[in-house]
Specification:
This protein has helices at 9-34, 43-64. By secondary structure, it is mostly helical. The longest helix has 26 residues, at 9-34.
């Protein structure tokens, strides 16, 4: 059982899996910019935010969840 305002092993695994999923999307943005399909001023920055924001949102949600 997860306690409120803490991370257990299962929660950390969920967060890391979510991070991998969002990193895939961020990598896709970077690749599309590299081959010229989309035009972004700073593709590394956009990819970073596309990875970090969903992961941080998931971490906050998991932090507040529990009993």
């Amino acid at each position: 059982m997860q306690l409120k305002r803490s991370f257990d092993k299962e929660t950390m695994i969920k967060i890391l899996k979510g991070g991998l999923i969002s990193a895939t999307g961020a990598f896709g943005l970077y690749i599309l910019n590299s081959i010229g399909q989309i035009e972004v001023a700073n593709p590394l920055l956009v990819s970073f935010f596309a990875w970090v924001i969903p992961m941080a949102t998931n971490m906050i949600k998991e932090w507040l969840k529990g009993e």
